[in-house]
Amino acid sequence: MYLTPQHILLAGATGLTGEHLLDRLLNEPTVTRVLAPTRRPLAEHPHLENPVGTFTELLPGLSGQVDIAFCCLGSTIKQAGSQEAFRQIDHDLVVAYAKRARELGARHLLVISAIDADDKSKIFYNRVKGETERDLKAMNWPQLTIVRPSLLLGQRLEPRLSEQLAGPLSKLIPGKYRGIEVCDLARALWRLALEEQDGIRVVESDELRRLGK
């Protein structure tokens, strides 16, 4: 069964995936409102509501009807500055956002996690992503979609050296570890948002590539 969501909440609209997803949402005829809190102003659009400030300050004041919530929040340990700061962004903020989205009436949360997320992993990054997935699942969302993209391929405003080096090679890797174009990920997220399927769905990168074509 397919839905026609009208009111969207989007976190991470200034990031690589969030920018592509926002553009798609604002061009969808069924979407009448996109609520996208950001730290810097976005280009104006008649269907865009853009509170500006720090995310933690904006979160409690978000209001209005929400049908579906997308979470594109994410960082790296290098960008965050420390493991503790990384966990605050990729776990604490994501969970807090999910709780607020549920309070606003969202029935479906779509969140970007990471390939090999595992709350028992010995790798810190994968373990934090896995802990985030675990805590989101415990919230008993009517519909929760967790996507696990592999290396994202696209032009960032602030390029990541590791992605620039690994990007060309990742296109040669088969299966779920092959790199995914960010435009394909955004298309896949929207297609998944339109599907009504109660419960939890985890979508790996190879399926995301297929959905995004």
From TrEMBL:
<dbReference type="InterPro" id="IPR000534">
    <property type="entry name" value="Semialdehyde_DH_NAD-bd"/>
</dbReference>
<dbReference type="InterPro" id="IPR016040">
    <property type="entry name" value="NAD(P)-bd_dom"/>
</dbReference>
<dbReference type="InterPro" id="IPR036291">
    <property type="entry name" value="NAD(P)-bd_dom_sf"/>
</dbReference>
<protein>
    <submittedName>
        <fullName>Oxidoreductase</fullName>
    </submittedName>
</protein>
<dbReference type="GO" id="GO:0051287">
    <property type="term" value="F:NAD binding"/>
</dbReference>
<dbReference type="Pfam" id="PF13460">
    <property type="entry name" value="NAD_binding_10"/>
</dbReference>
<feature type="domain" description="Semialdehyde dehydrogenase NAD-binding">
    <location>
        <begin position="7"/>
        <end position="106"/>
    </location>
</feature>
<dbReference type="GO" id="GO:0016620">
    <property type="term" value="F:oxidoreductase activity, acting on the aldehyde or oxo group of donors, NAD or NADP as acceptor"/>
</dbReference>
